[in-house]
């Protein structure tokens, strides 16, 4: 029973956080989901939870995943708020004495990274480092090249 309490608390906390972040009222949420303001108030108080379809609509409205709406704990993520759908924070990685890092298991699973895979390491002195699969990097580079070529052709008359 303790687990259900924790899940309801996470859900209600995330609902309140996202509503306030988007500067919406309980009435705004109720109108978009075709429920009463009192229903939204009960969800935020932890007195009840919406059905799965309403939860999906809430997640879509907030631009976050359904999993994050129900399970995201900011305490586990350096106090950061809920990330937009498709964006992730996987925690901190410690750099070893030879420059190696361990990519968290959840990141490896989401991005289909396996032992032996190669990753391109990109860097920007102002923004930091990024890891990307070489095939994705090449696709991006080709897209940028084509875009520049089309812009050049568009200006030559």
Describe this structure in words.
With 157 residues, this protein is mainly alpha-helical. It folds into two domains: 2-77, lambda repressor-like DNA-binding domains (434 Repressor (Amino-terminal Domain), Orthogonal Bundle), CATH 1.10.260.40; 105-155, no CATH class. The chain is built from seven helices and two strands, in the order H-H-H-H-H-H-E-E-H. It has helices spanning 2-21, 26-33, 37-45, 52-62, 66-71, 105-110, 134-155, and strands at 120-124, 128-132. A two-stranded antiparallel sheet has the order 1-2.
Distance between the termini: 72 Å
- The number of strands is 2
The CATH topology of the largest domain is given as: 434 Repressor (Amino-terminal Domain)
**CATH homologous superfamily of the largest domain - what is it?**
lambda repressor-like DNA-binding domains
Structural class category = mainly alpha
Strand order within the widest beta sheet:
1-2
- How much helical structure, as a percent, in the residues? 40-55%
Give the overall shape, derived from the CA principal axes. Answer: extended
Radius of gyration: 21 Å
Mean pLDDT: 85
Largest sheet: 2 strands, antiparallel
The CATH architecture classification of the largest domain is Orthogonal Bundle
Count of DSSP-assigned helices: 7
Secondary-structure element string: HHHHHHEEH
Low-confidence stretches: none
The tally of domains stands at 2
The CATH class of the largest domain is Mainly Alpha
Q: Which percent band covers the strand fraction?
A: 5-15%
Task: Quickly list its features.
7 helices; 434 Repressor (Amino-terminal Domain); 2 strands; mainly alpha; single chain; 157 residues
